[in-house]
Each structure stands twice: as C-alpha cells, then as structure tokens.
Design a protein that fits this description.
two-stranded antiparallel sheet; C2H2 finger domain-containing protein; alpha+beta; 39% helix; single chain
Length: 77
C-alpha cells in the first residue's frame, strides 16, 4: 500500500511522541504499557514498552487476537 505525504509526515512527527508517552504512562502509573505500529517510511515495526518491576510481560497474542478479524486461513478443519 502506498502512503501519501500527509500520512508519512504524521508518522514521522507523531511516532517518537507516542513511544515516549507509552513509556511515560507505564513509568508514572506503574502499569504495563505497550505500543506497536508499522513505520511506513522505514518499512519496519516500531515498538515501545514498559514492564513494572516484578511483573511479567502478558501474553500479547491473547490480548490482541480478539481484535483481529478472522480470515479463511485461520479456520482449523
């Protein structure tokens, strides 16, 4: 998918801010926080995360899966 200049500019300008806010939320509130998004200008995933001391990273697949549409390839026969 091709992205237009406006989309790329928004990605470039907002990405680092979102990463910092994600980590700050986790630190200040002492909660698990995570951000993951596709950085279209560099064609890679960008992530940020905070895990409070003594806490384990939750199963992200279990958290995300209910929000992902099911495709025909996902159906087990």
């Amino acid at each position: 998918m091709a992205h237009n200049k406006r989309q790329k500019d928004k990605d470039r300008k907002s990405g680092m801010s979102l990463q910092n806010k994600t980590k700050d939320l986790g630190r200040y509130c002492d909660v698990f926080s995570v951000l993951a998004y596709w950085k279209q200008t560099h064609e890679r995933m960008e992530t940020a995360m905070h895990v409070p001391r003594g806490q384990r990273v939750p199963d992200l697949n279990r958290i995300v899966r209910p929000h992902v549409p099911v495709t025909v390839m996902d159906i087990k026969y």
